[in-house]
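Pasting as-is:
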Amino acid sequence: MICPDCGYDNYAGEEVCERCLHDLTQADTTPVPKNEIHRSIIEDPMSSLKTVPHATCGPRDPIAKAIESMKSHRVGCCIVEEKGEAVGIFTERDVLMKVIGRNIDPARTQVQTLMTAPVEGVKQTDNLALALNKMSIGGYRHVPILDAGGRVSGVVSVRTILRHLVNQLS
């Protein structure tokens, strides 16, 4: 924590500045952006990201259909929807880890047997830091963006966030 009086960088949670003994308990703990990328991560909402149309399939569709949908949309995941609601997500990692090299027929096996459910999503108003945190903790590379009604309006990937941050540099 930076002392507002002398500018000394104290350890987080310190109650008194080590240098000038200024009371830090009343100091504002809101993170101050250090640069444009830091500001973007803390302040930019998910709606500021440029997303592409996402692939979809049904839970009883064959895995082959989900893979074809991902290929045609040129994306790494397929949102599994039932009655307009996201019930799961099937990703390229699922193909590599759960299909390839196993006794699974993609033309006959239903997506619901291998999808990840429930879906961890973020709202359009959530900041990039929340999405990055969910991705890091859950080990996800893709997270659906949900509109005010809870429906999927897009999918954000680590690559999407990285492109957004790189654009902040130019």
